[in-house]
Amino acid sequence: MRQGTTKPALNSALDSRQAEDNTPRLQQWAAAVVATGFTAFVVTLGALLITSVGQIQDILVQVDQSTHLLHRIGLVLAGCWFSMICWWSARFVFEAMAKAQPGNQSQLVTKSVVIVLPAAPGISPTITRYLPRCYAAILPLVIAVQSARNGLWQVFTINLLAVLIPVMALVIYRRKLTQWLEARYFLSSRRDWHHEIINPYFWGWCAVVLYGAVAVWALANPYTIGHALGAFFVVYWGLGSILFQLVVAICVVLPAALALGKKLLTHLWPEQATRLQRWSQHRWLAPPYPVLLVVALCAGGSAVFFDTDNHHVRRMDSSTGYAYADFDAAWQHFTRNLIQQGLPAAGSEDRVYPVFFVASQGGGLRAAYWASQGLAALTSEIPGISNNLFSLAGVSGGSVGNAFFAAALAGQTQPANSHCDPQTERLPCLLGLAVGQDYLSPVLTSFLYNDMLYRFFPVAGWPFLARDRAAVLETSWENGFAQIFGGNQLSQPMQQIYRQQTRWLPLLLSMGAHQETGARLITAPFDIDPTIFVDHYNTYRLMGCHSDAGLQCDVRASTAALNSARFPYVTPAGTLATSTPWHQKDHIIDGGYVENFGLMATQQMIHYLHRTQKLVLQKDGNTITLMPVILVFSNDMDTMPALLNHRRTVPYVNTGSFAFNELTNPIQGLIANRTARSVQSLTQAIAWQQHYSEQQYFAEFSYPQPDDQEHSLLRDFIVLQLQPDRDGDVDTLVPLGWWLSENSQSFMAKKLREPDYRPYQLIQQIKQHLVPMEEG
């Protein structure tokens, strides 16, 4: 606001005030950052997501190369919202600190303009002016630098022209802008528009309107907001919304509640008015408030006094039993179908039938896409090979890919999709369209809105608030599958899907983990026998569904997949039993915590079949030999090629020791131990296959080591490994998460379709060693 005082006089007054404050400037900056600590935390988090998380970078790649105009609008809206909320929240905190000490204002002279600023105790008015601007500029600047480094020039231009320049122009020149608007449009108005628009409270009310509109949309339908405006909008509008709602709650609602409580107590005990006044002026009850601490205390208190668990595993009523009574019944059904319709090994005179046990490595949507595309390519290149697929064991995203593939095989519909050639590669194309959709936005929308609010307002009677974000992810899979295939197989009860089949459908084994013990949990279409699956347990039993009369409840195929794919923090641990006290409940978590392939269960099945001699059958007086072949879909592009060298004499090391070894060596040991369990299951499976191998009809498979030398795996242990291009035409690895750009999808698909790549060559080798369907 302009003042009549001359500039030299004001500068003299300002200099005298600064002389009275002997606080060092660096200490003032530190105090300002601490006062706006939650804003600094959110800004830092937003910048780190851009620079360090491949999934966010992949989203920017998609925005840069997409022709979807709304997704680019979503980038602009989210960038502006996030930056403006960061600026507003810091200014709002400084305003609150100044109001806590009435009359405490400072004058800052810039050129010929005198600006009256809130004077936060111990902080220079210059800092209270420029620090919020720095917060506003950080995210657009980080996006600009990262997009320039990656050659995303459309994102760079959009961000520069539609986010960075407008936001900074508004926060810097908003006074001149409002004066111009006032002079042009509001001359006859009695309202002081200039004062209103430069006031942070005005922008706060604007934010309330915008936040409320998007929040209602997100609470009503979390599935459409990301589809309309893109995943970047969901991530950064959501982060800005969290910052806004917590600052409002802590800096507006909390002081109002404290003031109301003070008045009430003063009215009830007037003799204690002096003491209450002194308590109300305690530094812990004055701004700036410790936002993170207050939020943690409120959420913790809510969890203690109320039931805030809305993450129960979805179930469906059922009065029937398992699709197969036990493992032996499933094996007997498989072998009958195999001899009638399966593909024998070439040159065996129909006396040797390979039996494929699939193990799909975890890794979010990258793993789901790779596993589903690999299985689809296998069945497209080798018609009838699905009759030779016995089991589809998967962990995390691998189980999701297996579920999509099994649902596609189980479907009876013939979808007409204009994007897919009906004559060639139809199944890979359809599965690519179904699996490659944006599944990050729905679950993240649910997490940032209803799931976050439910921690503080656990009202189970409000379905829009009590909605589980894990169930949102499952439903989004079901919707994505139905959109492409036209059927609802993923939403059907798992046991019912298998009972309805008139042909063989490979067995889904979804490998989760028990949070309380670390034991492996299996969701399968048969009861789990502990004499076969050692230290593996039936998920249905822990859910309370199992009984001697059959199953009292069932789970959807999408739920079975999620039982293994509860990706840390993205999806919560699932509560298995609903009627037990909170301290006795069992939970299921991502199977990757224990073992990331599902190979332990796979080798236990093969060991049981060898031990009980179930791999030798009789048909028309002839002996039929079944040869187990483990087929691994590995999507780890960084370390797995080296780990496949089972003849190595020293451990493979791809990282050094952490800094501050005395403190960090237990952490590094725990992290490395998780990876080591997966490596151990891989090498043990190779060793078991080598021990049992007698007749090997497949060629020996070779994989390049990091030093470009060759080493070989067994003939009956095949790994379809996702690897970077040899010619280096991709700069980054396919990211881990629940989002894949079209570039990443095309990169993985070409590995299975083009002759220059090893996965395609392996599929052709398998094809050569099987008798084609028309000849078998």
Describe the structure in brief.
The chain is α/β, with parallel strands linked by helices and 776 residues long.
Proportion of beta-strand residues: 5-15%
Average residue pLDDT: 81
Largest sheet: 10 strands, mixed
Question: With helices defined by DSSP (H or I, 4 residues minimum), what is the helix count?
Answer: 28
Quaternary state of the chains: single chain
Percent in helix: 40-55%
The 3D shape can be described as: elongated
Counted beta strands: 18
Ranges where pLDDT stays below 50 over 5 or more residues in a row are 1-20, 106-116, 699-713, 727-731
Structural class: alpha/beta
Radius of gyration in whole Å, from Cα? 31 Å
| Distance N to C terminus | 89 Å
How do the strands and helices of this protein lay out in sequence?
Blueprint: H1 7-20, H2 25-35, H3 37-52, H4 54-65, H5 69-99, E1 105-110, E2 113-118, H6 125-149, H7 153-185, H8 193-198, H9 200-220, H10 225-229, H11 231-268, H12 273-280, H13 291-305, E3 316-317, H14 327-341, E4 352-360, H15 364-381, E5 389-394, H16 397-410, H17 426-435, H18 440-454, H19 463-466, H20 469-485, H21 494-499, E6 507-514, E7 520-523, E8 536-538, H22 539-542, E9 546-547, E10 550-551, E11 553-554, H23 557-562, E12 574-575, E13 587-589, H24 599-611, E14 616-619, E15 622-634, H25 640-643, H26 661-692, E16 702-704, E17 710-712, E18 717-721, H27 742-753, H28 758-768
Parallel strand pairs: 4-5, 4-15, 5-6, 7-8, 15-18
Antiparallel strand pairs: 1-2, 3-11, 6-7, 6-13, 9-10, 12-13, 14-15, 16-17
Helix pairs in contact: 3-6, 3-11, 5-6, 5-7, 5-9, 5-11, 6-7, 11-12, 11-18, 15-16, 15-17, 15-27, 15-28, 16-17, 17-20, 18-20, 24-26
